[in-house]
Amino acid sequence: MDTLESAGIDIDQQPGYAIRRLHQISVGIFLQEAGELGVTPVQYAALQVVGNQPGIDQRTLARTIALDTSTTGGVIDRLEARGWLERRLSPQDRRARQLFLTAAGEQALADTIPAMLRAQEQILAPLTERQRAEFMRLLMIVVTQNNDMSRAPGDASVRAA
């Protein structure tokens, strides 16, 4: 692409740029709401999924929250170090570790949920109720149809289980 062609491109009209900005905003709002709890958005996702699916294994958790397994391992290590999560040997597969929230982890999740809900509300605040539903519908189409392009594809079927 020559300089004349690139000069006519408006970065603000590029979906990738807008999505990156929205991600920055989303994380910033989440941390503003939940920062005092010391929970990151990824840690919240892990706690929520383990809370919803006690005994989930680490690989399935990674697919469910669309992270690579090594990153997920680090998240689990940090949550375990805080006493919020515990790993147990799977009775079916001694190589696999099942994940469970501790009582402290259940409390941390319960404490985080109101902050998370406030963050979600704030993110979508500029939109009407109808626009919110349409935005989420369109966003899920884009995410679902492009899922295989991710370095760590999510598995919606696992979340639905």
Could you give a short description of this structure?
63% of the residues lie in helices and 7% in strands.
Description:
The protein is mainly alpha-helical. It is 63% helix and 7% strand. The chain has a 3-stranded antiparallel sheet. Strand 2 (85-89) and strand 3 (97-101) form a beta hairpin. Helix 2 crosses helix 6 (103-124), helix 3 packs across helix 5 and helix 4 (58-64) packs across helix 5 (69-81).
Summary keywords:
about 160 residues, mainly alpha, 8 helices
Topology, element by element:
Elements: H1 3-7, H2 15-34, H3 41-52, E1 56-57, H4 58-64, H5 69-81, E2 85-89, E3 97-101, H6 103-124, H7 129-146, H8 156-160
Antiparallel strand pairs: 1-3, 2-3
Helix pairs in contact: 2-6, 3-5, 3-6, 4-5
Number of strands: 3
Mean pLDDT: 90
Question: Which series of helices and strands comes N to C?
Answer: HHHEHHEEHHH
Total of DSSP H or I helical runs spanning 4+ residues? 8
Q: Sheet with the most strands?
A: 3 strands, antiparallel
Rg for CA atoms: 18 Å
How does the overall form come out from the CA principal axes? globular
Strand ordering within the main sheet: 1-3-2
Low-pLDDT ranges: none
Helix content: 55-70%
Beta-strand fraction estimate:
5-15%
State the distance separating the first and last CA atoms: 47 Å
| Backbone structural class | mainly alpha
